[in-house]
Design a protein that fits this description.
This is FBX6 protein. The chain is of the alpha+beta class. About 20% of the residues lie in helices and about 30% in strands. A hairpin with a 5-residue loop joins strand 6 and strand 7. The longest helix has 10 residues. It starts with 8 loop residues before the first helix and ends with a strand.
């Protein structure tokens, strides 16, 4: 009588590639030494990438570990919660709230412009005193286990969108830190503040940075942005921010 264990390796790869990644790792890999061997094969995970639309022939030379590549793509999501002001200020920590404080407005806003992405409907806006807000992301809670972060060092990509009103100048700042378990700064992205003069084009602009080859030990990501207007007008004439994102893994 023929059993599944008698199947040729290529047939077993094809069958097991139909199963969810979690089942392969947590269950199938423990069945026997043969299944452990097959589940660990690069060819199985490459086949899963092909099945799920993650595969491009151009990747063949650059991907050394298709299992990690597949898992990173499965995990990939925006780690910033409430990036578009759709849930008021939920998930954000207000670090500075000067002047007339943070406010939420609907696009395009007074003397403003629409975002390139029509799905973005709201933004956060600052006042005449410093307004900064932040989020602290705990990586293991998001599925990124310590060994993965330390050994594979997947790319961490940060993006933010900001804009000024046409009729008022303002200042924008962004700081992103990769932190250890003890909250020590292992790497930081803190570009020069952007100062936008009065009578600008009021267009939305994206700032982006990708952390690569960072030190081992990253356990948290801290994201902070904000600013203020430069003419100290009462109300909400400062920098506008929305659609922030932090993603981990392949850019493909």
């Amino acid at each position: 009588m023929t059993t599944i264990g008698d199947l040729p390796e290529d047939v077993l790869v094809e069958l097991l590639s139909l199963l969810p990644a979690r089942e392969l790792i947590r269950s199938c890999r423990l069945v026997c030494s043969q299944w452990r061997y097959v589940v660990d094969l690069n060819t199985l995970w490459k086949r899963k990438c092909q099945r799920d639309g993650f595969y491009h022939q151009s990747l063949d030379r650059s991907i050394s570990d298709w299992k990690i590549f597949y898992i990173l793509l499965l995990l990939k999501k925006n780690l910033i919660k409430n990036p578009r002001a759709e849930e008021n200020f939920q998930h954000w920590t207000i670090d500075h709230n000067e002047g007339d404080k943070w406010k939420i407005e609907e696009l395009p806003g007074a003397h403003g412009s629409h975002m390139p992405d029509p799905k973005v409907q709201k933004y956060f806006v600052t006042s005449y005193g410093p307004c900064f807000k932040s989020q602290l992301i705990t990586l293991d809670k998001e599925g990124y286990w310590n060994q993965l972060m330390d050994e594979k060092r997947p790319e961490i990509t940060v993006k933010d969108w900001y804009a000024a009103r046409f009729d008022c100048g303002c200042r924008y700042e962004l700081t992103v830190r990769l932190l250890s378990k003890d909250y020590l700064v292992l790497e930081e992205f803190h570009p020069e503040p952007v100062v936008i003069e009065q009578w600008s084009d009021a267009q939305w602009r994206e700032i982006s940075h990708t952390f690569q080859n960072y030190p081992a030990g990253v356990r948290y990501i801290w994201f902070q942005h904000g600013g203020h207007d430069t003419q100290y007008w009462a109300g909400w004439y400062g920098i506008r921010v929305t659609n922030s994102s932090i993603t981990i893994g392949p850019q493909t």
